[in-house]
């Protein structure tokens, strides 16, 4: 079957849904279609590792796609883009003619060799599968000590599970947090009953029915009722690459979120965009970037001048701890810690070349815009004069 729309969106996640809403707001009479690979309509991803494990309110995650009055096609995957003809082919043999196209294909979880049967945590289906395994006393192995791994481990422990964390680094969050904070977080997880095994990796996994046996790098074996892996994602750039679009750690876009083809845009986890405050391109895998970028992409597709120049922020909940962060959180940079209460409330600044490149707001709230302004400021900043720049009052 052949279809034709003014605007076509490949990907029915947060970025795609936000773009559809923005398109409808900017072009009331336009025809809009979304192709989504999942069987579910658009939903918010952060609750999958946060709020749903506290309140279980699944009805709260669905995004308001009805506002876009779009043709939403689920369980349908785009397979090829014909740029010259402005046509997209899908896995059901249909073709989709477009005026403007948005690629919002997100990413796919990285997987472990020998990790058959693991839950590579990314989707609502993954959440439901894990939810089925979670009950008091259930043995849950969490592979990964980064963003998703730390959230899932906390969520499982708060639901009465016996949690073991496995990761190659020396501490939880070691790649992002300064060494002292990473060590304190690791100690905090152990206080909460999590068996944290730093410096340990999974060599092989096997399972019989619902039980898993993990062969670990220290020679031991771990049994678990479920294994959850949070190892980051790889952007889904295959369509763009095959179409000849410029790709470099994501689909390369300009400030208007246009790719190297002016009729094709990209947004969300898959897009590599210019970040003027950092002086380089970045690709961000968090909610704020997905929704805001999707909105700007939709506006730009409809002909508005709506450049995406905002530095996105992200946030996390870890037991009773929480944070918001802006910019680059890389423990290899110079870090300056400013604590009200050590490792419970404070600010961490990440410095490079006399500039602030990232800000971690640890249990410090309402400072995201001030952190953005600090990152954009020319400086020069050093370990002495950056202290006290945040939080700002008034």
Task: Report what the structure shows.
It contains eight helices and 25 strands. α2 links the parallel β2 and β3. The strands form six sheets. Strands 1, 2, 3, 4, 5, 6 and 18 form a seven-stranded mixed sheet that branches. It has a five-stranded parallel sheet with strand order 8-15-9-10-11, with helices on one face. With 394 residues, the chain is an alpha/beta fold. It is globular, with a radius of gyration of 22 Å. It starts with a strand and ends in an 18-residue tail after the last helix. The chain has three domains: 175 residues, FAD/NAD(P)-binding domain (3-Layer(bba) Sandwich); 119 residues, FAD/NAD(P)-binding domain (3-Layer(bba) Sandwich); 57 residues, Enolase-like, domain 1. 45% of the residues are buried.
Descriptors:
5-stranded parallel beta sheet; single chain; FAD/NAD(P)-binding domain; alpha/beta; Enolase-like, domain 1; 3 domains; 394 residues; 21% helix; 8 helices; globular; 7-stranded mixed beta sheet
